């Protein structure tokens, strides 16, 4: 028994409070001593990993993660703040649509140049595409969890393993590591996503309140979760407009289209990348799910005027959902009883914006894949024939 007690004490000592690497992170005041090219920091960390220098591995992997977040936050900050910049005298360009478009592009580029000049993230050499992809796939956590383990910091090792598995649920090696961790006492408290977003915590809190019949609290937290999700989504879209390697030379419009197609692919991924995983399960149709909870909570409080727009919002994303369709029929049948107008049956504005934006992005990305990424010789010849025929007329 004495031996067992000692073992348990050691295990609990290892499971100290997990301090995520971002506790030291600040977009506004990033430590000057940590500023360095992301490629250099990451390569140095992996070199230390190969040489089994675990404290140095941990230090530079954590720095690398902060540098990557700084870069993404800086991209989002500048692109969001410059997104509405336009020409001062647009009217004089009315007869010259091409000049109008490129004039606004140049104004936005000027704004971005000024913004980036003042931010430390852009004073470093930009990382390679391969490095960026590693961080987007959470690859650093694969190395970080083992370095934590070898440093006898099991709490952080568990969190790092969990963070990696959320992106790679079928990784056999990490699944075996997690199986070992779960055999130890006190592990459950450290199954944390180190990349979790604030809207995920608000969503979980809202669902718990909902399950406890605390509908007012659930509505309050779910509304905050929605607002925060849309903010983070806009930041993700803005960050997708960041730096890009130019690998070939093309004519003006194909070059612009090629660049924008790459940006579009990254923007389309924002929806899935921001979808939370709760209790090991992906929250499918996340935005729609939030409206589902809201409509029922409003209904339970007899606030039908706010419940109905949530039903309409949900049906944007899942128009064939029978339960929600029946709810809508029910509300329409009793609309006079509750004093509902036709406007009450419209989806909420932020839901319409998000729905339209995501669908248009998907449509444009699909157009790019079908018509721009590889030349179809038959299609090209037919198009040339049509141009020549039109020219002869």
Q: Write down the CATH topology of the largest domain.
A: Serine Threonine Protein Phosphatase 5, Tetratricopeptide repeat
CATH superfamily caption of the largest domain: Tetratricopeptide repeat domain
Query: Under the CATH scheme, which class of the largest domain?
Result: Mainly Alpha
Q: How many helices?
A: 17
**Under the CATH scheme, which architecture of the largest domain would be assigned?**
Alpha Horseshoe
What proportion of the residues form beta strands (DSSP E)? under 5%
- Provide the low-confidence segments as ranges: 1-19
Helix content: 55-70%
Coarse morphology: globular
Largest sheet: 2 strands, antiparallel
How many domains, in number, for the residues? 2
Order of helices and strands: HHHHHHHHHHHEEHHHHHH
Which strands sit side by side, in order, in the main sheet? 1-2
Structural class of the helix and strand makeup?
A: mainly alpha
Distance between the termini: 98 Å
What does this structure look like?
The chain is mostly helical. It folds into two domains: 18-190, no CATH class; 198-371, Tetratricopeptide repeat domain (Serine Threonine Protein Phosphatase 5, Tetratricopeptide repeat, Alpha Horseshoe). The chain is built from 17 helices and two strands. The chain has helices at residues 2-14, 38-50, 54-81, 97-117, 129-136, 140-150, 154-167, 172-182, 198-211, 215-239, 252-273, 286-300, 304-317, 322-333, 335-338, 349-371, 377-392, and strands at residues 277-278, 281-282. A two-stranded antiparallel ribbon has the order 1-2. Strand 1 (277-278) and strand 2 (281-282) form a beta hairpin. Helix 11 packs across helix 16. The longest helix is centred in the N-terminal third of the chain and has 28 residues, at 54-81. The chain is globular. Mean pLDDT is 88; it is low at 1-19.
